[in-house]
Request: fold
Amino acid sequence: MVPAAIMGLDVAKFLNNTEEMVKACGASTSADSNPGVILGTILGVAANHGRDKLTIVTSPGIFDLGAWLEQLIAESTGKNRQGHYSG
Reply:
């Protein structure tokens, strides 16, 4: 949150939106309605078909946040010589 706040992101608004997504991705939400499960499924199927890149397109106001998220995901998935950041 510190990088986002330094960038000038409205942290209170971000946290309110986060609360909505936490509920939408909760354990009581069915898999076919859960955005987290749907995204994970799309990424997994894409990876199984040889798609090994991820690009996050953001508005100019949060460009740095998109780049940071790409890096975070690359570091989290770059295990066993798979995944890397090429930004």
